[in-house]
Design goal:
Mean pLDDT: 90
CATH architecture: Up-down Bundle
Structural class: mainly alpha
Shape: globular
Number of domains: 1
CATH class: Mainly Alpha
Order of helices and strands: HHHHHEEH
Number of strands: 2
Radius of gyration: 16 Å
Largest sheet: 2 strands, antiparallel
CATH topology: Four Helix Bundle (Hemerythrin (Met), subunit A)
Strand order of the largest sheet: 1-2
Strand content: under 5%
Length: 169
């Protein structure tokens, strides 16, 4: 039921964008902002003691998952902006909740600037993972990557008896 709810929400967000004939970037931005908020709220909601939670030995801890999201945002958005990656560190190695929440926040703020590029710039070609795409394609991939890992966050939170942000009323 929750999967349907997220899909329905995505359609509801995209429909007004199409009706208003928003820009290409403007049609992706609401989806990014939605998942950006969910990840931020989850990072803040989960107690620090659970940042070391690892459902199985083969997967990341909750904290490493947030660090991975921050790393990926900096990577994607620096490429989109045509800049050197400003992260300066591997956030998957950070273990303190306050530092990880700050990394998630700062990486999102950095990406906000990438989602503000013009459509002309968004349509410029770039190579991502040895494949040709556009800056817009990279924006979409960043939002998809965030959503993919938000799905992991939901599972981690449910395993710990917590209600994830997307299910809170």
């Amino acid at each position: 039921m929750r999967s349907f709810s997220l899909a329905a929400l995505a359609v509801l967000i995209a429909a007004p964008a199409a009706a208003q004939q928003q820009t290409a970037v403007g049609s992706v931005q609401p989806l990014y902002e939605l998942v950006r908020g969910y990840i931020q709220r989850a990072a803040e909601q989960v107690p620090e003691a659970e940042y070391s939670f690892q459902p199985t030995p083969e997967v990341r801890t909750f904290g490493r998952l947030l660090g991975h999201i921050a790393n990926a945002r900096y990577m994607f958005c620096s490429m989109i902006k045509g800049e050197e990656n400003p992260a300066g560190r591997n956030f998957e190695e950070v273990t303190v909740k306050a530092d990880l929440v700050a990394a998630v926040t700062a990486s999102a703020q950095y990406c906000d600037e990438a989602y503000a590029i013009s459509d002309a710039r968004a349509l410029e070609a770039l190579t991502l993972f040895d494949r040709p795409t556009s800056r817009l394609g990279a924006l979409v991939l960043n939002a998809m990557h965030d959503m993919e890992h938000y799905g992991n966050i939901v599972t981690y939170m449910r395993l710990k008896g917590m209600t994830p942000p997307s299910s809170q009323r």
